[in-house]
Amino acid sequence: MRNINAVLFDMDGTLIDSEYFYFSNWAPILKSDYDFEIDFEDWIRDFAGHTLKDNVEMLNREHQLQVDEEDMWFATRANYAKANMKNIRLMPHAKEILDKAKAEGLTLGLVTSSYQTTVQTVLGEHQLLDYFSFFVTRELVESPKPNPEPYLLAVEKLNIPKEEIVVIEDTSTGCTAAKDAGLYCIAVSKQAVERQRLNHADLLLNDLAEVKNSLF
Q1: Using the 8-state DSSP alphabet, how is residue 182 labeled?
Q2: Which of 24, 61, 157, 211 is deepest in the core (most CB within 10 A)?
Q3: What is the torsion angle, in degrees rounded to the nearest 10, for the CA atoms of residue 8, residue 13, residue 14 and residue 15?
Q4: What sign results for the dihedral spanned by CA atoms 145, 147, 148, 152?
């Protein structure tokens, strides 16, 4: 479909099926500590694709809670540790598209709002770390998605024209970051609430099998 030489992948919700994991660890904390209940649809609509800092600010601004960012950091990390991130599954067809991209000789990068430790834990468990030439993680940027900084850093690392790069994202937040960085973005989501917010993507598909077919 394009003369591409590099693909930049988001991680959460794109390569790994992590959103329910995060929801199931945040929801009990919000209920027990702040008497605030959310369901999975709330999570996808309001939380997915955002950093902890953004989510805390949203809760305090829109729901008049008094969530302390540091407290939430430690509480969520404690829950993640107990739940074991190594149990997070890959999204369907994730390994297939990575195998195909590598076979085609493309350079792969990971651009995520998660921290390097999460990347190492989850992708390491699935033996996917070696597929990527580099990782742009939360601690490497001052302004995470939806700011374009993470993708601009990735472009700098690739050192090839933007026209030769494709981004794969699953949320409006990530797509906004990619588009504002001047990149072609394929959005992939089956979540109705998210698909309604992805009209700024260059292409909107249902799963990674469709993405693979569109690229190769």
Answers
A1: T
A2: 211
A3: 100
A4: negative
Q: Under 8 Å CB-to-CB from 189, ≥6 apart: which residues? A: 13, 170, 171, 195, 198, 204, 206
DSSP 160: S
Q: Residue 77 burial (CB < 10 Å; 0-12/13-18/19+)?
A: middle
SS3 39: coil
Amino acid at residue number 66: Q
Question: Based on the number of CB atoms within 10 Å of its own CB, is 199 exposed (0-12), middle (13-18) or buried (19 or more)?
Answer: exposed
State both tokens at 187. 């959005």
Q: Which residue has the tokens 């493309």?
A: 106
**Angstrom distance (rounded) from CA 194 to CA 176:** 13
Residues 6+ apart with CB under 8 A from 199: none
pLDDT band at 81 (very low <50, low <70, confident <90, very high): confident
pLDDT of residue 2: 66
Tokens representing residue 73 in the block: 């950091």
Q: pTM for this one?
A: 0.88
Average pLDDT (144-160) is 97
CA distance 94 to 145: 22
For residue range 103-147, list pLDDT tens digits in order. Answer: 999 999 999 999 999 999 999 999 999 999 999 999 999 999 999
**Going by C-beta distance under 8 Å and a sequence separation of 6 or more, which residues neighbour residue 12?**
18, 19, 22, 48, 49, 112, 113, 114, 170
Q: Give kind and range of the element (H or E) at residue 119.
A: helix 116-125
